[in-house]
Amino acid sequence: MAEQAEPARLAIAESAPVAVTVGRQFVSPRARRLAAEKQVDVRQVPGTGPQGRVEERDVVAFLDRQPRFSALARKVAAEAGITPSGAPHERVMRADVEQQIAQAAKPAQPVETAQPAKPASPPPATPVPPAALAASAQAAVTPMSAVRRVIAQRMSQSAQTAASVTLTTEIDATELVHLREQLKAHVEQQTGESLSYNVLLVKLVCAALHEFPYMNARISGDEIHTLPAANIGVAMDTSAA
């Protein structure tokens, strides 16, 4: 489905001109309600009412000057844990946000100055993908308790020494089959590819990880890093040697 930018336009209805204050700033109730709904910091909105009071029209005008983000652009930015940027009235699409993520992940270039010759340094390590860097930078870190540290050590030891066991659970996938039938024709028309069950299952796992973020974590030393983005890999059997 093609991306469509979401316009920040709202209809202005009539209201009683009763004002409240935010700090030293006067804000009308309708302006305050609209700012809260659109997650706008009302302190950034210039007021045009009496004594600089912020009216609803001021919030509408402020939103009208903001970049227009597509739904996919907002989703990619949220998964990467960044605040997307753009010029006033600019249409910001998913590719623009992905470029911002890649730019944010690049290390700062040092300023070149005249320095004495130094011995050759060892070759750099293999670069980490920008998406992984962005996710690591935004990971929520939780120090492990002594009990959790012992559990992690025992589980790691068990994984290396004990035989692995596969647990199989049967479920009713009737609704999953119906969902694939409903989406299959549309996906083939848009992408030219067939919609597989693997794609749907990966999407369901991703949704579950976002709903239960404590399952989307890794251990680093004595800390638990809860990741904001769900990166899922699927092993495929190919004919390649």
The helix-strand sequence is EEHHEHEHHEHHHEE
Strand content: 5-15%
> Shape from CA axes?
extended
Over all CA atoms, what is the radius of gyration?
25 Å
| Mean pLDDT over the residues | 74
Strand order of the largest sheet: 5-7-6
Structural class: mainly alpha
Biggest pleated sheet: 3 strands, antiparallel
Query: Any low-confidence stretches, pLDDT <50, length ≥5?
Result: 7-22
Number of strands: 7
The tally of helices reads: 8
Residues in helix, %: 40-55%
Give the N-terminus to C-terminus distance in angstroms: 37 Å
Indicate the multimeric state. single chain
Report what the structure shows.
The protein has 241 residues and is mainly alpha-helical. Among the domains are: 20-66, E3-binding domain (Dihydrolipoamide Transferase, Irregular); 69-104, no CATH class; 136-159 and 173-226, no CATH class. The protein contains eight helices and seven strands; from the N terminus they run E-E-H-H-E-H-E-H-H-E-H-H-H-E-E. The protein has helices at 29-37, 56-64, 71-80, 94-105, 130-137, 146-161, 174-191, 197-211, and strands at residues 20-22, 25-27, 68-69, 91-92, 140-143, 217-220, 223-226. The strands form three sheets. The chain has a three-stranded antiparallel β-sheet, with no helix packed on it. A two-stranded antiparallel ribbon has the order 1-2. A two-stranded parallel sheet has the order 3-4. Helix 1 runs parallel beside helix 2 (56-64). Residues 7-22 have low confidence and may be disordered.
